[in-house]
Amino acid sequence: xxxxxxxxxxxxxxxxxxxxxxxxxxxxxxxxxxxxxxxxxxxxxxxxxxxxxxxxxxxxxxxxxxxxxxxxxxxxxxxxxxxxxxxxxxxxxxxxxxxxxxxxxxxxxxxxxxxxxxxxxxxxxxxxxxxxxxxxxxxxxxxxxxxxxxxxxxxxxxxxxxxxxxxxxxxxxxxxxxxxxxxxxxxxxxxxxxxxxxxxxxxxxxxxxxxxxxxxxxxxxxxxxxxxxxxxxxxxxxxxxxxxxxxxxxxxxxxxx
Length: 257
Ligand code: SF4
Ligand code: SF4
Description:
By secondary structure, the chain is α+β, with helices and mostly antiparallel strands. The protein is built from 8 helices and 10 strands. The protein has helices spanning 60-79, 101-117, 119-136, 153-160, 186-189, 215-219, 227-239, 251-255; strands at 2-3, 15-19, 22-28, 31-32, 99-100, 171-172, 177-178, 195-197, 202-204, 248-249. Strand 2 and strand 3 (22-28) form a beta hairpin. One iron/sulfur cluster is lined by residues 84-85, 89, 91-92, 191-192, 206, 208-209.
């Protein structure tokens, strides 16, 4: 029997506590065994198991996705012809980007669904993700076993030049369709319309959209993003010990979990 962080230890039980893939404490009829080891802070260690084993999709993610879908639909309606997005336009699906624990878990959930409902597509996504990692993995600035991006200044600098031209493994090269559209990361959900960048002062949008539009016309089509709700859900994952603090990965790893 194993327990996860944050749960209470029963008074009389044979139990083992595992954290971050390592046995930390065994309870023999309510008493810790002599081999008890004091856990280190998770942020100070590399995890031993794959990234997605630490997370589970919170129920509030459905609310987040619903808000994002409604926000995108409303921004699209206001933008009209200024928005150039269409099936087969894939520029925004080239070049790697970081995703957080919630994005990764949503993708993992999508793959679980596809393995049951469309095994051929799931197998194809797996094949593409493996190919992607075979090509780009050697230069991945992080832990290849877990898929977690490194957080040092050197690793962050390396990520700037990493796989910048690579097609996302979730992109169907024949149709230009996203094969995990319903479960795509938050970054993908804001491609196109104007959204607040950086500290929130500047509006940015896809360079293929709003060509010739004035600043006022762009501002009138801003897509609001519930950053606070997303941060809150990710924080919950971290507090429950189901995600390493501020851990990030990339789509290819998430598709293989
Ligand atoms: S965000 Fe830009 S690149 Fe992506 S589909 Fe829309 S127009 Fe095309
Ligand atoms: S997950 Fe889908 S929408 Fe996002 S970059 Fe990949 S193919 Fe494009």
